[in-house]
């Protein structure tokens, strides 16, 4: 990296730490996310030939989806369940939707826009199907995992929601099965309570001030 660029980044307290060459496994979590993104894009686009405008629009929409994904929550207060997202840090807002644009008249413009939206919908379906299960650590038949407790802040997996929607709630009640394991929980989301299996709940880590600064 050029020394001048290093000095400019240092002013913003940005420090790059690179992995060794030919060692993508050092990335761990984010490398797995990159793999999920690539796989979802391959399924959505496949071998079809798209224009540069269509591909650029799809990639911008995908960027908005990824940057709206919650990283963790700051407060354990039930009145403050808004999670920290990359969009919030980058743009100061959580809404990553594209602004409304005046498109050229004619069927071709509308057809390309529908094509873009169809590709992004396919990406969202494949990404959530392949990526979200990796956030749930499962050691079935080997060792017990941490039990979900009342007060935990969780991300709800709901394939029926529109894309870029990441519902976050707080566990208000847990149902213990005969073997002593929690398999079902009540989750409060914006004043409404939903009963969901723990297989559809992903606990979010609590972010302290030290974590946020790093």
TrEMBL record:
The lineage of its organism: Eukaryota, Metazoa, Chordata, Craniata, Vertebrata. It comes from Cirrhinus molitorella. Pfam families: DUF5641. Residues 111-204 form the DUF5641 domain. This is DUF5641 domain-containing protein.
């Amino acid at each position: 990296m050029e020394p001048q660029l290093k000095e400019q980044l240092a002013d913003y307290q940005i420090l790059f730490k690179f992995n060794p060459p030919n060692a993508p496994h050092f990335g761990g979590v984010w490398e797995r996310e990159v793999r999920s993104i690539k796989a979802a894009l391959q399924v959505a686009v496949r071998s079809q030939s798209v224009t540069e405008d269509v591909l650029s629009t799809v990639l911008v929409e995908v960027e908005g989806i990824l940057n709206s994904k919650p990283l963790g929550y700051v407060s354990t207060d039930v009145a403050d369940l808004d999670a920290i997202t990359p969009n919030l840090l980058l743009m100061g807002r959580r809404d990553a939707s594209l602004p409304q644009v005046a498109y050229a008249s004619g069927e071709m413009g509308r057809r390309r826009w529908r094509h873009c939206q169809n590709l992004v919908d396919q990406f969202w379906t494949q990404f959530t199907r392949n990526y979200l299960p990796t956030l749930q650590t499962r050691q079935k038949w080997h060792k017990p995992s941490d039990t979900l407790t009342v007060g935990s802040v969780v991300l709800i997996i709901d394939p029926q929601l529109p894309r870029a929607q990441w519902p976050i709630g707080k566990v208000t009640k847990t149902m213990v099965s005969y073997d002593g394991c929690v398999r079902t929980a009540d989750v409060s989301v914006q004043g409404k309570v939903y009963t969901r299996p723990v297989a559809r709940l992903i606990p979010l880590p609590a972010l302290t001030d030290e974590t946020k600064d790093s």
